[in-house]
Amino acid sequence: MNRFLTPFFLIATSLITSSAFSQNRISGSIKDSHGKPLENVNITLTHSNLNAITNNEGLFIIEHVSNGHDTIFISHLGYKSINQNISIQEKDISLSFVLENDLLNLQTVVVTGSFDPRVQLESNTSVSILNSKAIKQAYPQGTASLLQEIPGTFTDASAGEVFTKVYTRGVSASAEDDTGWYYVSLQEDGLPVSLVQYSYYGPDLFHRLDLTTEKVEALRGGSSSIATFNAPGGIYNFISHGIRNNFGGDIRLSTGIQGNKNYLSKIDANIGAPMGNNWFFNAGGHYRLDDGARDNDFTFSKGGQFKFNVIKKHDKGYLKFYGKLLNDKTNRYTGVAATNWDNPTPAFGQDFNTTSLLMPSFNASIPDGRNLDSANNFNPTQGVHAKDYAFGFDFNQDIGNNWTIRNNSKFSVKDANWQTSISNAFVSLNNPLAYFISGAEFPIGQVVFRDAQSGSELARINNAGILAGDPIEYLTSSTLPNDAIMGTSTWYKESKADEWMNHFSLRKQLENHDITAGFDLGFSNTSLFTQASFAFITYEPNPRMLQVTLENPGEPVIALSDENGVSNYGGLWFVNSEAKVSQLSTFANDKWKISNNVYLDLGLRYESINHKGSKDRYAPFTQDGGLDGDSNTAYDNSISVPTGEKDNFNYTYNYLSFSGGINYNINDNAAIFARLSQGNKAPELNYYFDNFSNVPINKKGEVQKITQIETGAKCNFKDFSFTSTVFLSQLKDIGIANFEFDSDDNSIFYTPILFNTSRTIGLEWESVYTPFQNFLFRFNGIVQDPKATTWNIYDAAGSVDTADDNIVDYSGNILPFNPKLMFNFSTEYEKGKLSAFFKWQFMGKRFGNVANGFELPAYSIFNLGTGYKVTKHLSANILVTNLFNSEGLANFFGANSFGANANGATPEFIAANPDASFIVVPVLRRRALLQMNYSF
């Protein structure tokens, strides 16, 4: 037997010995062009699937490398990648590399919108990257504010951190102020922040920017139709820090002044380290106190978040656990009154820099229409209290034979509670609305207005003649500012959602094909409750709450408001809805290598979205004397309560999206590409929640159809880099409804939906030029022609009654809120310990409505920053935004009357009312910030 076993033993021994001797080691160093070691550079042997990361001295080691030929791929954000063939033949190898600056990150690997990681230059999509340096140059105002650095992206952050708008390439029609991210996906580490949207519930509520973000990848249009959930307009992916080979991180203290001596304080941190046995962790977050950019008597924002990830790395892939705890309160600014349609000028003592017109602080207890035995606490200083508790895991595994499996899954619990004001319109004391909106049956006679805080009488009037068209009469020498009250309401909303989403993909690499297929799953259980009451407030730059009574001689005193100034409890608005949303999709994409220089991408995505839920019908609570049974308190006479009837909905939207692109690499530094995409946008939940008031939801919404064509070029030279893209986007079946107020019954309603079409043609570009060492210029922007090719608006004539309604045709007009020109120009200097930048942001003229009746003027904002490295670890920075205090106007809400909307300001209306006031939203004024940064 030994005679037979000996040969096998010798062969096995030989193989083991050979294998042992064929295991080699590759070590090396990586520096930048100034000779500085680079940390956290990724080094990969592409055929062996072995990798390493440089330490803080720029050194790396790869063990257990087999004999043969391989390709070493080196990448680091902000530097050009290196792809070099190497030969290993039973010896250790020592290598050294110098990485050149990659001015536009064209040699950086991107993962957003592509089904396989690829260098941006080889991608046939329009992708931009903001690295950590660009993020640190941004004032910490919020997500949308940062994204205005992205070419071709329109952002409106005039309201603050939330209630923002973001869209690209004229795909904008349904991106209203309260659903401003309608067409795009805001993501964290590859999954959406929120699965659903509806009025006052968007992803920006649950996203905050801090040091935990390493970079942002922004995809405009194109493959987003097939790469993510129901977001054909683009993807903005905030990617967190990953593996650190050594203990290190950043701590940043910020303090600043803004507006009229309002203060901001913030602390940010992010720390990472290895934990042994190839385990790594990152953790960080922020906390802030912010008085706001405008004048209000309370802290505008306070709170923060904590984020973490734990990563297990191995030769064939990784496993990552991650989470986020967000608990944050912020508010949002409404508009400011102006006159002069041709050159808007602040009116009624307000100004574009400091006026906020938000309610002052008070504590009210307003009966809950769902259960009249309970009440909701209301304090407008709370703003919106957002909570998001999320946990997920992500794993990537090479399973052999060029197969790779990836799964990213996240569960989150979300809660957004709004306690703020809605609208701030002028309501004349000569307008019967000022009294009847209280809910009182006949509030005519002597009306007394008192300061709700001090109790002192501010004005006493006789309104007996208003129904005949006669003006009011002041009965004492005291008057109310501007002879008016503010048309506003207490806006209370409870929005909750439990969500789970999952992305799974299976990738197979062949000689000339790279095929990825998989599925996305998303489930959301959502509930919404909205209740609005009227509030009596002075109409002046720093409003005061008014306690209002009707005091006719010889008759009982009738309270038109409670002691806080709140009136018509729960009578202006009532929505109580719930919904279950299921989004199921499957996708496939093939990256076909036609030749060494030509790659073709073809992808499909089939999506099925189901909305199932209900909406309560409601009616005023009827009882003599109102809820409290007291006929002398009129403010609780009209509370909206459920009738017990529900309008159910259960609709499924199925559609197929396609995207195909081709990329031709001219050489290692230049490429051209083209892409055709046909995507779809299913309705969001606001279709059911907003558009059906006490009527059956008897039909599903329309799926908007989006066609996008683009072609572009990318070049990456030593001193100059640029990308440019010519595009055409067409959006069809756009459902439009207006927010209206009926003064006859004091109700708010949405008009019937009409379907329209828009088309935008344009050129977007991004470029960087370094004329000499330590100095560079950046220039990006968009030139476009946005058209409302087919556009009809439903005119309700100011009442729910349909007898006088008509449809107005605005086809051929310019698409509103889309500038023909928008750009960013900046210059940056960095040498030794000193750095500085200067930025110019230009926003072109935009029409404020599809009627093209009012045009928002162009404006420029200039930002300045400088930094100094005190020591190796400590640095200081100063950031100033809106340096010259531009009074640019970012938004338009229409005529200055309660319930008005932008579409009502037609050319005919403006011609007939040349001296009328209207509501605009100015950009936020100058803010200066001092930052102290400690890196280790």
Structure characterization notes:
It is a multi-pass membrane protein. Pfam families: CarbopepD_reg_2, Plug, TonB_dep_Rec_b-barrel. Belongs to the TonB-dependent receptor family. The chain is mainly β and 936 residues long. It has two domains: 81 residues, Immunoglobulin-like (Sandwich); 624 residues, TonB-dependent receptor, beta-barrel domain (Maltoporin, Chain A), CATH 2.40.170. Helices cover 5% and strands 56% of the residues. The protein has seven helices and 57 strands. The strands form twelve sheets. It has a 22-stranded antiparallel barrel. Strands 10-15-16-13-14 form a five-stranded mixed β-sheet. It is elongated.
Name the shape in a single word.
elongated
Count of individual domains: 2
Main beta sheet strand tally, sense and closure: 22 strands, antiparallel, barrel
Can you identify the CATH class of the largest domain? Mainly Beta
Q: Quote the distance from N terminus to C terminus.
A: 65 Å
What is CATH's topology name of the largest domain?
Answer: Maltoporin, Chain A
Average pLDDT reading: 92
Helix content: under 10%
Strand content: over 45%
Number of strands: 57
Radius of gyration of CA atoms, rounded to a whole number: 30 Å
CATH H level, superfamily name of the largest domain: TonB-dependent receptor, beta-barrel domain
Count of helix runs: 7
Structural class based on helices, strands and sheet pairing: mainly beta
CATH architecture label of the largest domain: Beta Barrel
> Stretches where pLDDT falls below 50 for ≥5 residues?
1-21
